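Most newcomers find our protein records easier to grasp once they have seen one. To make this concrete, we reproduce a full record directly below:

…
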Amino acid sequence: MVEVVAVLECFGLSPPLVAPVPVAGGLSNELWRVQTREGVFAVKRMVVNADRPGFVASVEASFAVERRAFAAGVPMPEPVPAPSTGCALAAVGGSLFRVHRWVAGRAGAGSAREAVELLARIHAAGGPRRAPPPCPAWTPASRWGPLVAGLAERVAGQPERLLVVDSHGDLDRKNTLLGDVLVALDWDAAGPVSAVQEAVSVALDWSRGDPAVFAEAVTAYRSLSGVAVPAEPWVFGWWVAAQGGWLDYTAEHDPGEAQRTLDRLRRLATDLDAFTSPPAGGGRSGRRRQ
């Protein structure tokens, strides 16, 4: 309780009116729902990688992307900076904390269409430009067997210049809430991404492995954003790299989640041709930006 009071003070907020309520479900961080005179807030203690060099700089860079998206009207919780520094993070009791205004909604709900609609709004606010894209890489793929290693090799490589945007970077179901609209949470991985590769990642996560739903989501994203998504393996490179990094982490911390992640990678390795086949009636190539 004393620690939460100190955190709230750092963020210019009054003490809790009632005892803070722990919010279950977070593997990467710890979260509390806190009611104050100024309203209800989410207080998050950063856990994963918080002691690594460069962590603070990375979160603060992501915070700049997050604040621009909020200012542009993207549906998301209001980020609360520490008033004395203007930064996202405040150090209290040897830990780093963040604060957002609380948003109510159903976790893990919503459709693939709603997810790509939200993503298209994020991308529109993300300073679209033609540039060399960030290069996704997952080096230790071979430790997970030939099927997964073959997938990593097959999706490697990408064009030298693509449409790059400053975006959320991790818009899967665990990082959204559905209320009146779908809301994007947890922007700590925000930064420059290939618009095409993030669109593919979101469509794949939200389609639950159904190629038809995936194709519909990609088509909806193209219609909303004007960005073409080529039906080629390299567009899955960023998803594979992100899942691979998560697999390496959870293998040491949560074996059940590690197995689920490995299963997702194996399913894509088996079904990649189904996801890279253009849908009937026009395909996904087009002559638009990518």
